[in-house]
């Protein structure tokens, strides 16, 4: 009969009955997410750009087909110029100086009015977010004035300001102001209160809390408000240029409609779209360095 001493080596030799070593990590089964190939940042950008180009190409083809067959099904394309005519008109305007004057004047108006709106909007939003009294005083004015469209401001703006240029900049300023104010206010209100209390318990002053806690927490909303405000500022600018302007891409588009020049109408619309898209992208690019901490926390 084997002894206990001889049973121990036999038990040690049999692998299935031995207890697993705690220091040995258990084998991991590969997950589905890990098995998927991850694209590099450059690859993701290229794929997104390719999808965007394909989508725009399909839109242009649909536009060409609708104008070629004079589609009249709820939407009438009988008088809508084809993409070829619009592109030819655009190339023709590229050889004229007045076309670039219209673009430069609109860009200058946007730069002035948007800069003023950004400075006032961020300041007012931060003050309202940290002061209940300021919020109670200013918010009624914002809620009453904000729904008024830009076109409705034109007659009063002409009466208030000494020049048409100042009235257009004022209307554009109002369009960009309210999205920036409200998004800044929302960002300040969404600051985690636990972070504020933690900073207070460490002896931080109100200025230090505002600078190192409240402002960084509100930056994503401020960035979104700046991007939205840029888009709304273009809408307001064009409304002012159509009614009271003599130069600008909005005046160019309205003048083309008055002269029944349909290709130029579409040229003006597309230029407005590309300028608005480019300026919004520029705002996001300028605010991106302020949001680097978001990538580090993910």
Automatic annotation (TrEMBL):
Pfam family, one: BPD_transp_1
Residue spans crossing the bilayer: 45-66, 110-129, 141-161, 167-188, 209-235, 265-286
Domain ABC transmembrane type-1 positions: 103-287
Swiss-Prot/TrEMBL GO biological process terms: alkanesulfonate transmembrane transport
Keyword terms of this UniProt record: Cell membrane, Membrane, Transmembrane, Transmembrane helix, Transport
Membership in a protein family: Belongs to the binding-protein-dependent transport system permease family.
Function description: Probably part of an ABC transporter complex. Probably responsible for the translocation of the substrate across the membrane.
Protein name, entry field: NitT/TauT family transport system permease protein
């Amino acid at each position: 009969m084997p002894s206990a001493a001889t049973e121990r080596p036999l038990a040690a030799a049999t692998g299935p009955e031995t207890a697993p070593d705690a220091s040995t990590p258990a084998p991991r089964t590969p997950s589905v997410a890990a098995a998927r190939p991850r694209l590099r940042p450059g690859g993701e950008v290229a794929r997104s750009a390719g999808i965007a180009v394909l989508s725009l190409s399909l839109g242009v083809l649909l536009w060409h087909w609708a104008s070629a067959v004079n589609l009249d099904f709820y939407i009438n394309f009988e008088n809508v110029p084809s993409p070829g005519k619009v592109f030819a008109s655009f190339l023709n305007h590229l050889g004229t100086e007045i076309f670039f004057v219209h673009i430069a004047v609109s860009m200058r108006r946007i730069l002035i009015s948007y800069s003023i709106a950004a400075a006032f909007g961020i300041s007012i939003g931060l003050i309202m977010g940290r002061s209940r009294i300021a919020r109670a005083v200013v918010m009624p004015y914002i809620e009453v004035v904000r729904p008024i469209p830009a076109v409705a401001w034109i007659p009063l703006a002409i009466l208030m300001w000494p020049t048409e240029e100042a009235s257009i900049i004022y209307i554009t300023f109002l369009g960009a102001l309210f999205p920036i104010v409200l998004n800044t206010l929302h960002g300040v209100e969404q600051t985690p209160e636990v972070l504020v209390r933690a900073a207070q318990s460490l002896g931080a002053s109100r200025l230090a809390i505002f600078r190192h806690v409240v402002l960084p927490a509100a930056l994503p909303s401020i960035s979104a408000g700046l991007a939205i405000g840029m888009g709304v500022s273009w809408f307001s600018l064009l409304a002012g240029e159509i009614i009271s302007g003599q130069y600008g891409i909005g005046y160019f588009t309205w003048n083309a409609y008055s002269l029944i020049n349909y290709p130029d109408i579409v040229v003006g619309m597309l230029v407005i779209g590309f300028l608005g898209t480019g300026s919004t992208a520029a705002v996001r690019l300028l605010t991106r360095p302020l949001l680097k901490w978001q990538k580090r926390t993910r």
